[in-house]
Amino acid sequence: MAETGTDPKDGERFDGEGNLIGENGELLCDRCGDNVAALECVDCKVPFCFECKADVHKKGKWLTHTFLPIMSVADKKAAGEKREFQQMSVLKEIVESEKEYLKLLGVLTNVFVTPIRSGKFPELTSNKKTDVTVVFSTISLILQGNLELLKDLEQEITKPNPMVGAIFLDKLDNFKLYNVYCNHAEEATQAIMKLSRTSSSFKQFLETAKENPACERKGISDFLIKPFQRVLQYPLLLRELLPPISTSTSTSTSISPNLLFCLHWFPYADCSFPEQPVMPV
């Protein structure tokens, strides 16, 4: 209780933050203890009804205090339900966009990577330390890891209180592969472009692959940029799961530390990718 409040009385009820509440859970004025609170003083850090707010803040330093509106119990319930619906929509978006992303990785792997790695074009893959070899090997690992991520996400969102942050935290080692991918992607793309200009057979392969219905007339460069785009989407999607900042001392929201950790980690992932190159085919 703040210095503006009265001493506790028998039968008074308090919430988890020590604020006085009424029989129906409504927040009461900290000063009079009778009227429903309408405003929270940011400086006093206590709720007031309109009458007490005017009485206390009528002179001296009190005149400079600022206030925030307090939501009613009904408004809080409605806001909570709306927030729950919004979060479930975000969770579904994460899952559905992950499915589409994995579909594109599958096309990249089956139509381009696997044939190239089969030995048809040794100029690109004969040396295991080349950028192309590193990128292609990393794509396979990323695909495997993200398939596991999707499986876990689909299971988690069926639970009453899905802990998505914990799922992403468990997969951080897989996300570190994106660092490797992005660090070699530019050179790998340049090597592919160079060979397409000097090898007629490789150019023909890329043209034929592009006509595959699964590619929808997209070239290999259109698919190689997908991992970079996806890893930048994760923090944007996860940030939408964070609850809004409370404007009332009567509201206490628990934020998953796992989610916060992931949000802190993603922006510092060492991923960079050049502007998408224009392939000659």
Can you offer a commentary on this structure?
With 281 residues, the chain is mainly alpha-helical. It is built from 11 helices and 5 strands; from the N terminus they run ββββαβαααααααααα. Strand 3 and strand 4 form a beta hairpin. The N terminus and C terminus are likely disordered.
SSE layout:
Elements: E1 13-14, E2 20-21, E3 39-41, E4 46-48, H1 50-56, E5 67-69, H2 73-120, H3 122-125, H4 131-156, H5 164-170, H6 172-175, H7 177-198, H8 200-210, H9 220-224, H10 226-239, H11 257-265
Antiparallel strand pairs: 1-2, 3-4, 3-5
Helix pairs in contact: 2-4, 2-10, 4-7, 5-11, 7-8
Shape: elongated
Strand order of the largest sheet: 4-3-5
Give the radius of gyration.
28 Å
Cα end-to-end separation: 72 Å
What number is the mean pLDDT? 80
Provide the low-confidence segments as ranges. Answer: 1-6, 245-255, 272-281
Q: How many DSSP helices?
A: 11
Estimate the strand proportion. under 5%
Helix and strand sequence = EEEEHEHHHHHHHHHH
For the biggest sheet, the summary is: 3 strands, antiparallel
Helix content: 55-70%
> How many beta-strand segments?
5
Structural class: mainly alpha
